[in-house]
Amino acid sequence: MKMWSGRFNAALNKQADDFNSSLSIDKRMYRHDITGSIAHATMLGECGIISVAEADDICRALSAILADIEDGKLVIADAEDIHMFVEEELTKRLGSVGKKLHTGRSRNDQVALDIRLYLRDAVTEITALLRDLIDTMCDIMLLNTETYMPAYTHMQKAQPTTLAHHLGAYCEMFMRDIRRFADCRKRINVMPLGSGACTATSYPLNRKRVAELLDFPEISQNSLDGVSDRDFIIEFMSACSIFMMHMSRFNEELIYWASDEFGFVTLSDEFSTGSSIMPQKKNPDLSELIRGKTGRVYGSLITMLTVMKGLPLSYNKDMQEDKEAVFDCEDTVKMCLNVFTSLLPSLTFNGDVMADGASGGYTAATDCADYLVKKGLPFRDAHKAVGQLVRYCCENDKTLDELDTDEYKHFSELFESDILDVVKIKNIVSARKITGGPAKKTVITRINALRKELENF
């Protein structure tokens, strides 16, 4: 018998009941549902809406239900959703007193509260995983401040940099992700209970007391919005999607770095797979899966945007679809974070191959032009002269660091013998010591700053 069945003469059709049920999905919120109900019951007793003794009995029984679920003594089953399961179990244990829990509350604002409590925890957990990832990357960066490699634009070699500087770019992305989740948490952290079904309630509820008990800094200000707002879920999914985009970019690079054509990195046997037909293969399957699962997270975001785009105020059953999408989004992000943080330290970065790559492709050309500019030549003239110099190298199968002083002087009399030191990869990198550059000291300073900022999250 459904708790809402008083108005109905017939039981719900079995197919309709199965279709309507969300227990298999939302049961993971049992702890949050019980925590919210304990706060609600406490407030009801303090406000005299139910007696203090009844409130105490309800809170004790709810705590016992929570303990029984976590100990495996109570199996979550045979209910429409987790909210009905908990209330039905409470009523079994307390009888009519258990039926008083729902006073001044609707399932609509109860659901809104539970998902906010759940996502608040999810943000905390994802942030902790992101901290571990950034910390792991900082360790690798410190070991590679002088591991030289080419930086690219348009997938063409551009200028020399270091592996530490390259990895640091992803650290910046992941730090923005942490800040984005922290900002998202502000919108999650609004207490909706008291909104009722849609127009609040005539009971003299103390909403601020419930917010205090549940550690919410503020309460929702419009009951219609309180039960129908899912912006915070969409924002959470958006933060997850942006994070996964960053992960996909990183893993895309690792995939081609591990190819024979690049050879920048060697995959660990523990984090790669083979082929069923080609004995020599060592495939970057985990990186490919992370890249693929990015689309899955995007799909969850699009699901919610589509569910919400045409809904009138206030609550609609369509919103039940939010749980499966957001839970899958959360699970995917956590899984990718855990795997990738373990995968990274297992990689072997081939410094000699990277260094050879850094010296190829005329990556010192910009520094040659800057050398002439510092001697007084206008930049555009310097650019043209060095362009002609590069063409000469191409035609004679030489690199810039293989030329002698006379060859340089052929293109500009401003070149002196010190140009031979200027075009050395190590010197090019060390000269870029302004904030944001790849020089060793600059990168180490940024690593220390990143780790200091992590302490705030």
What Rg is obtained from the alpha carbons, in whole angstroms?
30 Å
Percent of sequence in beta strands: under 5%
Mean pLDDT: 95
> Could you give the distance between the termini?
47 Å
Count every helix, treating DSSP H or I runs of 4 or more residues as helices.
19
The helix/strand class is mainly alpha
Instruction: Please give the order of strands in the largest beta sheet.
Output: 1-2
Runs with pLDDT <50, length 5+? none
Helix content: 55-70%
Give the overall shape. Answer: elongated
How many β-strands, per DSSP?
6
SSE string: HHHHHHEEHEHEHHEHHEHHHHHHH
Strand count, sense and barrel status of the largest sheet are: 2 strands, antiparallel
Descriptive keywords:
mainly alpha, 19 helices, 60% helix, 457 residues, two-stranded antiparallel sheet, 6 strands, two-stranded parallel ribbon, single chain
